[in-house]
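**User:**
Everyone, produce one record:

**Assistant:**
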Amino acid sequence: MMVDITRNETYLELFHNDYQSAKGYHRRAEKFAQTGHPANLVFHIATMALERYLVALCDLYGVSPQNHNYVCLMEAAETVVDFPAELNQEIRSLDEIFGICSLEINPHGDPVASDANRVLVLCGEVRKILDMAGQSVPVVKRPA
């Protein structure tokens, strides 16, 4: 269920910037996957897209995550949007599996094609949520 809050222009501008960045990373990751680039490259670009999508969602509602790892992003995002439980767990698990934002050695190893595809699917699911949430968001015009 969406929480109805007043959106100010600063948050709307942040939302639009982060959402455009997310879509750009997402498109690039899909293109790289289609053209046979290494799975670890696709994975890392897709994880940047997923992060930007979640940050954009937080921006849309003026919610500040404690950190930009997936657990903190989901904790912030789920205060304003109901995520399907499976999607929530899948996104959160990226931190645990790949040690994202960790200084420790990654115990999982290099991402493979199935890992890259998994993150691309997650990007698509979060983008659908964002598209629904942002349908009534006005465009912020920047001064010329």
